[in-house]
Amino acid sequence: MKFKFALPLCPESPMFFRRIPEHKMRLPTAEEALPGRDEAIQTSQIHTVLGTSLHAPFPAGMQQVIFGMGCFWGVERLFWKIPGVHTTAVGYCAGLTPNPTYEEVCSGMTGHNEVVLVVFDPEEVSFEELLKTFWENHDPTQGMRQGNDTGTQYRSGIYLSTPAQQAAAEVSKANYADLLLQAGMDAVTTEIIPAPTFYYAEPYHQQYLHKNPGGYCNLAGTGICMQGS
């Protein structure tokens, strides 16, 4: 079974002297993508921290959004700690291969992003607050990577459930992009699209950092705060 390690695995490091495979830095075409499978990968059912269901149906009034910010282990922990978040789950989306495995996603040949499904109560936490958390806790200018994690599955992305979420996300992206440019940083590369199919990741990935408190977490923001925060 393949795991990530809390070591600097950057391919540019003198420890490795290897080049990043070209295919891992671009999305595969439909002809190149792995075929996947018809059957869903077996997943966990209950959130080990919150005690809520990882799967729909969710309570009335809940909203959903999916975030990609790099390795999904640390991202999930970031959001499950927010009051008003009903449940979180890690998985894969925005790719081509149906029901992909973790190993397939890591190959770069499915097109999927490592993402976190966030189900939240808008009466307790606003969508804007979740967006603030998203922007401030990773670097959205890095393209197909996040820090030492390199490949298409580490791209920045927001995958939305409603037109109102889409509008709010686009406004927040423009505002944060302006702040980053003023600070001399590169343009934002975050993709913002309606939520595609979300495929749940394998059980050992769900709430990974609760089960493994010393596990790998590569979250690192830019140090630039949203205006008004």
Automatic annotation (TrEMBL):
It catalyses: L-methionyl-[protein] + [thioredoxin]-disulfide + H2O = L-methionyl-(S)-S-oxide-[protein] + [thioredoxin]-dithiol; [thioredoxin]-disulfide + L-methionine + H2O = L-methionine (S)-S-oxide + [thioredoxin]-dithiol. InterPro entries: Met_Sox_Rdtase_MsrA_dom, Met_Sox_Rdtase_MsrA_sf, MsrA_MetSO_reductase. Keywords: Oxidoreductase. It is an enzyme of class 1 (oxidoreductase). The active site is at C71. Gene3D superfamilies: Peptide methionine sulphoxide reductase MsrA (3.30.1060.10). Pfam families: PMSR. Residues 64-218 form the Peptide methionine sulphoxide reductase MsrA domain. PANTHER family: MITOCHONDRIAL PEPTIDE METHIONINE SULFOXIDE REDUCTASE. Belongs to the MsrA Met sulfoxide reductase family. Has an important function as a repair enzyme for proteins that have been inactivated by oxidation. Catalyzes the reversible oxidation-reduction of methionine sulfoxide in proteins to methionine. This is Peptide methionine sulfoxide reductase MsrA. It comes from Halopseudomonas salina. The lineage of its organism: Bacteria, Pseudomonadati, Pseudomonadota, Gammaproteobacteria, Pseudomonadales. The gene is msrA.
